[in-house]
Amino acid sequence: KPYLLFVMGFSLLCDSLSGQGAVSASFGFHSEVIKAGQTTPLGINVSRRPGADVLAYTVGQLFGQENQAGLLKNDPDRRNGDVVWLKEGNSWLQIYWNKGWKAIGAGDEDFSNRQIAENTGVFITSKAEKDSLLVFGGYLLDQAVALNVFPGFNLVTRGWPVPVTLDETHLSKSPGLSLEDVVWLWDGAQYLQLRWDGRQWTDLNGAGDFGAVLVPSLLAIQVKGPGGLIIMHPPRYLIDAKSLPDRKAPTPPAVELGFSATVRGNPTFRAEWQSSSSKLEYSTEIWSRHGWFSIGRQTGDSGEILFSEALLHRLKCGVARVRVEHIGRVN
């Protein structure tokens, strides 16, 4: 029987974990609102494969080779559809969908394989009449986000599919961030412009403490100093400390991810894996700011497909993993 991850707060009612057995790679999803008639920053904070140390996508991988994301078709002469702004050095490509991924000024050249710079993102100018929602699912990075920034504007992905405050990122400790640099954070209506003054995050007048502000999926760093290495850390408990594997523990399950729907037609983010033995028990664990918590256990015959689902109309984001343990004592 599958388990539905209804709300992240539900995890607080469950038992915390003992740390036994073996766990799969962590996975998750996040949804982003694309504002109608506006230009929205968009960072993708999950990876296409487990164990990745950078977030890397092509245009086709991000939005689908056949525009599965549903961006509004654009006529480059009329400019009546959505445009994806892709930063390359100090210039911008304006990419759109029209029987393929193309770029303004480049004719019918195929841009589906155009690489988006690692650990960055894009902007989307929407011509739609209503806001739209894009949902991205994948695996978590296994380390902090790191990239070099240079004088001028730099795009940096948040790195994680769950909410992170500016203080939690430890961005202020990055060797490449100077007291002159400005961090731009989109709050859905306007940009906050913040600086690190050596003690706290303030506005450009040196007022306030903005360390508790949530970081959007993509931020911009206006480097006015020399630049250098920027590091974005995950919130607490999201990445476990490295430890030696338990030789008595079963093999962690290989989790496959995708989107589906319930029998009532509600969209879901789905994780499934194959049971290795009827003598193994699998539990779905979800992350919260208090740690990892189990929400249910499953068993299955060897080769049987087990799965868990998250209801996307109830959740904006979530992180989970699958723990496997032997049933009974292992000698």
3D architecture notes:
The protein has helices at residues 59-63, 166-169, and strands spanning 3-5, 22-23, 27-34, 39-43, 57-58, 83-88, 91-97, 101-103, 115-116, 121-125, 132-139, 145-149, 152-157, 182-186, 191-196, 201-203, 218-223, 228-232, 256-261, 267-274, 280-288, 291-298, 305-311, 317-326. The protein is an all-beta fold and 331 residues long. A hairpin with a 4-residue loop joins strand 15 (191-196) and strand 16 (201-203). It is globular, with a radius of gyration of 21 Å. The relative contact order is 0.22.
Radius of gyration: 21 Å
How many individual β-strands?
24
Q: Which band does the percent of strand residues land in?
A: 35-45%
Helicity, as a percent range = under 10%
Return the structural class: mainly beta
The multimeric state of the shown protein is single chain
Question: How would the blueprint of this fold be written?
Answer:
Blueprint: E1 3-5, E2 22-23, E3 27-34, E4 39-43, E5 57-58, H1 59-63, E6 83-88, E7 91-97, E8 101-103, E9 115-116, E10 121-125, E11 132-139, E12 145-149, E13 152-157, H2 166-169, E14 182-186, E15 191-196, E16 201-203, E17 218-223, E18 228-232, E19 256-261, E20 267-274, E21 280-288, E22 291-298, E23 305-311, E24 317-326
